[in-house]
């Protein structure tokens, strides 16, 4: 459970918990996080809530990417450079702002990757 000095909504709690569960060296798309949080189809909500994370909540925000594997921030921006730096520090390959999801992503079966549950 994610805790904060500010009360969190159920959606925030579920989304932040799903992001916190992404293991180092792996990434997930906004849509995969929404699905894991029980909010399928709410990828934009994930992006919005990532932009509103309370200061006292630490999340591996840099492990969340677009469904294509691309970093969502403008190329060359400070945030873009920081996300690339953090991903590479965990051994994630980033080429031209894109991570090969076939090697580093959890989207194909996020439950199995995160929790070791049988896929279906």
From TrEMBL:
Coiled coil: none annotated. SUPFAM superfamilies: Methylated DNA-protein cysteine methyltransferase, C-terminal domain (SSF46767). It comes from the Bacteria. Residues 11-92 form the Methylated-DNA-[protein]-cysteine S-methyltransferase DNA binding domain. InterPro entries: ATL_DNA_repair, MethylDNA_cys_MeTrfase_DNA-bd, MethylDNA_cys_MeTrfase_DNAb, WH-like_DNA-bd_sf. Keywords: DNA damage. This is Methylated-DNA-[protein]-cysteine S-methyltransferase DNA binding domain-containing protein. It comes from Dyella thiooxydans. The lineage of its organism: Bacteria, Pseudomonadati, Pseudomonadota, Gammaproteobacteria, Lysobacterales.
């Amino acid at each position: 459970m994610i805790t904060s000095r500010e009360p969190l909504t159920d959606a925030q709690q579920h989304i932040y918990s799903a992001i916190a569960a992404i293991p180092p060296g792996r990434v997930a798309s906004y849509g995969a996080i929404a699905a894991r949080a029980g909010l399928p189809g709410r990828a934009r909500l994930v992006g919005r809530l990532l932009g509103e994370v309370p200061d006292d909540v630490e999340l591996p925000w840099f492990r969340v990417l677009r469904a294509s594997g691309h970093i969502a921030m403008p190329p060359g921006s400070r945030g873009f450079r920081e996300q690339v730096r953090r991903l590479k520090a965990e051994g994630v390959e980033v080429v031209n702002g894109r991570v090969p999801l076939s090697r580093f992503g959890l989207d194909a079966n996020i439950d199995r990757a995160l929790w070791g549950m049988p896929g279906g």
